[in-house]
Amino acid sequence: xxxxxxxxxxxxxxxxxxxLLDRVIQHAELIYRVSEESCSLxxxxxxxxxxxxxxxxxxxxxxxxALPIPSSRSEIQQISDKWLLHSVLMLVQSWIEPLVYLQTxxxxxxxxxxxxxxxxxxxxxxxxxxxxxxxVLIKKMLDEGLLTTNSxxxxxxxxxxxxxxxxxxxxxxxxxxxxxxxxxxxTFLKLLxxxxxxxxxxx
Length: 203
What we know:
Largest sheet: none
Family: Belongs to the somatotropin/prolactin family.
Pfam families: Hormone_1
Structural class: mainly alpha
Oligomer: single chain
Organism: Dissostichus eleginoides
GO molecular function, one term: growth hormone activity
Keywords: Disulfide bond, Glycoprotein, Hormone, Secreted, Signal
Shape: elongated
Helix content: over 70%
């Protein structure tokens, strides 16, 4: 991964910080939009309304819950530009492995539509591109060299041969949690853009 990131930095020496930030935001917007579509499609195909209610009542924890990511509006407003980028990078890196697992799991379904499989694969690939873009942006904006962030180990557990219902609910939880985190990535990056252009009017 470090090699890929270094290659990305070498490929983008001339792009301006503003254009790079715009490109990263576009990536994040697309990832969030496709994650919404994937989650809705999965619900329609595999999750009866009763199970949706059960899932909400059970309060499944998202795999990134342990990460020190700001959640309230006041917390987000108070953190620095550096920490906004750091938070996006942590979220991106934490989801790369789970999304690879999700593709493998969906391939085992008898009736998973190609549309869902293709969307999941697309998001997984775009997430790696987003990671590279954020790292280049950090280098350009902070001029501190590579800022590496290791995903916390043990966040993601792959149980052996679960019951089919358990597998479906786990995949649904993954998709739902990723959709929330993709929205956070987009929100943080747009706030950063706002701070660069109109610091005093960023809500």
